[in-house]
Design goal:
The complex is a heterodimer of chains A (about 180) and B (about 325). With about 180 residues, chain A is of the alpha+beta class. Chain A is built from five helices and five strands; from the N terminus they run ββαβββαααα. Chain A is globular. The N terminus of chain A is likely disordered. Chain B has a domain of about 100 residues: CO dehydrogenase flavoprotein, C-terminal domain (Enolase-like, domain 1), CATH 3.30.390.50. In chain B, β6 and β7 form a beta hairpin. The mean pLDDT of chain B is about 95. Classes of the chains: A alpha+beta (about 180), B alpha+beta (about 325). The structure holds flavin-adenine dinucleotide, iron/sulfur cluster and FE2/S2 (inorganic) cluster (FES) (2 copies). Flavin-adenine dinucleotide (FAD) binds next to β2, α2, α6, α7 and β8 of chain B. Chain B: Keywords: Oxidoreductase. Chain B: It comes from Streptomyces musisoli.
């Protein structure tokens, strides 16, 4: 077995978070969201529902968007995680999508925003890789980038709720960075 | 949540052995349902056996022209697979109609099949629920049951199975591959799920410790298109109130192959065998479709607040059947 049988309730894991390695002893019950917020002091990722229903906790794991509230940290050993704090890279400059959210005023309270940002970046990569959505026509060629019109953006972002209802501007901000 | 052990076996066999050594264990795949149920206290395993990284993450061609989908293939990858989109469109459409992109990126084939009901009483430890705690009663029967079953329910349980994917797989005649230390076996998806009867605590015919290793799709018949349609309370990111998957082939104006399964209506994906029997060999006309669908839904036994599901399911089925049937040649 990769991990020796662990009769106890804790294991050691190594995660790369925003480019930095962290080796931690985690309780098996620990979900990634709580680990980020409570142990690594990365409080950008938000807890809206804690049950996979709102998307506020969305982060990128090995480049894919996932709900960090439903991921057990112990199962992520060796993963590369990007949170909203890491989107700008090393510099102080915000990511172009963060800039677009500011320019478009794509939030009110801002609670859902970190999840919207990570989700949108994951979404752009999925569309570029040719992943269809519920509204993609059946005749769209497989494996070719899917053009993102507004209905595609809305459908693909439906896993991120915004209680302030900033949806129209979130869609506009995303449109601004579509290559 | 109580503490639990964690194991990450390297092979299917090691996973099965790990279960034999830890009978109170649960397999962890994408975790999108299991971790939720751990938080709610519905699941209290002694150990989690992580199967998420087992080498079951590919979609392979079978020599008979079918496809084998590994148990840990993520729902998003399966929906995007060109072979699935081309040959089994109902499956791709069903996957894309379920959950959210984030959840589909984590959810696996095996986990999707074995996800538990979304009945709110099942998820609430303070409420009676025969599925969670046999003998405690069914809170939903006289309570809030607008989303519950209209077909095949029992006095003990009226829950529905929430998977969209399983509905498409049932209509497509897919089979589930199972593995345990005692051997391997296969079951049609349509027969894999149980009706609740007196034992609603058992969703399927899987045995304790058995592992789903994959799903087999039979070769798609040329000229037999398929489609999935789902009705829900909002345009996206909601479970089905009712849904339908249809495979239909018409030769010379006559139905010569048909598979129909309903979702959201029962404890399992509901193969509409009465409809299929009536349609095989019948002319592919709107009137024939209407009569055949009515035969199936005549068996519905709606509860106080969910009778709306019967006409909803009927309209979904007729829409998809009429859409898949090529328009008759102009007279
Ligand atoms: C907010 C929300 C909305 C959703 N909406 C929808 C929807 O609209 N339609 C829909 O279909 N689904 C929906 N889902 C459910 C989602 O599709 C399932 O949670 C997911 O498919 C489960 O897969 P998983 O790999 O994460 O399973 P896990 O959570 O890892 O496992 C689920 C169960 O299966 C068992 N298991 C997993 N893999 C195997 C295996 N290979 N062999 C044996 N046992 C196994 C586990 O032990 C566990 O009991 C939604 C979920 C959420 C949270
Ligand atoms: S319908 Fe089934 S799952 Fe829901 S409360 Fe009744 S017994 Fe429990
Ligand atoms: S906090 Fe994770 S989806 Fe809501
Ligand atoms: S900006 Fe307030 S929840 Fe979205």
């Amino acid at each position: 077995m990769t991990s020796a049988p662990q009769p106890g309730h804790h294991s050691e894991v190594t995660l790369r978070v925003n480019g930095k390695p962290h080796t931690l002893r985690v309780d098996h019950r620990r979900v990634l969201l709580d680990l980020l917020r409570e142990e690594l002091d990365l409080t950008g990722s938000k807890k809206g529902c804690d049950h996979g229903q709102c998307g506020a906790c969305t982060v990128l794991v090995d480049g894919r968007r996932l709900n960090s509230c439903l991921l057990l940290a112990v199962a992520l050993d060796g993963s590369e995680i990007t949170t909203v704090e890491g989107l700008g890279g090393d510099g102080d400059e915000p990511h172009p999508l963060q800039r677009a959210f500011l320019d478009r005023d794509a939030f009110q309270c801002g609670y859902c925003t970190p999840g919207q940002l990570c989700s949108a970046l994951g979404m752009l990569a999925e569309a570029a890789a040719g992943h269809p959505s519920h509204v993609t026509g059946p005749t769209a060629p497989s494996g070719r980038p899917v053009p993102l019109d507004r209905s595609e953006i809305r459908e693909r972002m439906s896993g991120n709720l915004c209680r302030c209802g900033a949806y129209p501007r979130i869609v506009e901000a995303i449109e601004d960075v579509i290559p | 949540m109580n503490g639990f052990g964690y194991l990450r076996p390297d092979s299917v066999h090691e996973a099965a052995e790990a279960y034999a050594a830890h009978p109170g264990a649960r397999f962890l795949a994408g975790g999108t349902n299991l971790v939720d149920l751990l938080k709610l206290g519905v699941e209290r395993p002694s150990t989690l056996i992580d199967i998420g990284r087992l080498p079951l993450d590919s979609v392979q061609e079978l020599s008979d022209g079918g496809l084998r989908v590994g148990a840990t293939v993520r729902n998003s990858d399966l929906a995007a697979d060109p072979r699935v989109r081309d040959r089994y469109p109902a499956l791709s459409q069903a996957l894309l109609a379920g959950a959210s992109a984030q959840l589909r990126n984590a959810a696996t084939t095996g986990g999707n099949l074995l996800q538990r009901t979304r009945c709110p009483y099942f998820q609430d430890l303070d409420k009676p629920c025969n599925k969670r705690e046999p003998g405690s009663g069914c809170g939903a029967r006289d309570g809030v049951h607008r989303d519950h079953a209209v077909l095949g329910h029992s006095p003990q349980c009226i829950a529905t199975h929430p998977s969209d994917m399983a509905v498409a797989l049932a209509a497509l005649d897919a089979q589930v591959e199972l593995y345990s230390t005692a051997g391997t076996r296969r079951l049609p998806v349509a027969d894999f799920y149980r009706l609740p009867g007196e034992h609603p605590e058992r969703d399927t015919w899987i045995r304790p410790g058995e592992l789903i290793t994959g799903v087999r799709l039979p070769a798609a018949t040329a000229g037999a298109p398929s489609a999935y349609r789902k009705a829900r309370d909002r345009a996206s990111y909601a479970f089905a109130l009712a849904s339908v998957a249809v495979v239909l082939r018409i030769q010379d104006g006559v139905v010569d192959q048909v598979g129909i399964a309903f979702g959201g209506l029962a404890h399992r994906p509901w193969r509409a065998r009465h409809t299929e029997l009536a349609l095989l060999g019948a002319p592919a006309t709107p009137a024939a479709f209407e009569g055949a669908v009515a035969l199936e839904l005549a068996h519905a036994e709606p509860l106080r607040d969910n009778a709306y599901k019967v006409p909803l399911a009927r309209n979904l089925a007729l829409d998809v059947l009429n859409r898949l049937a090529p328009a008759p040649a102009p007279a």
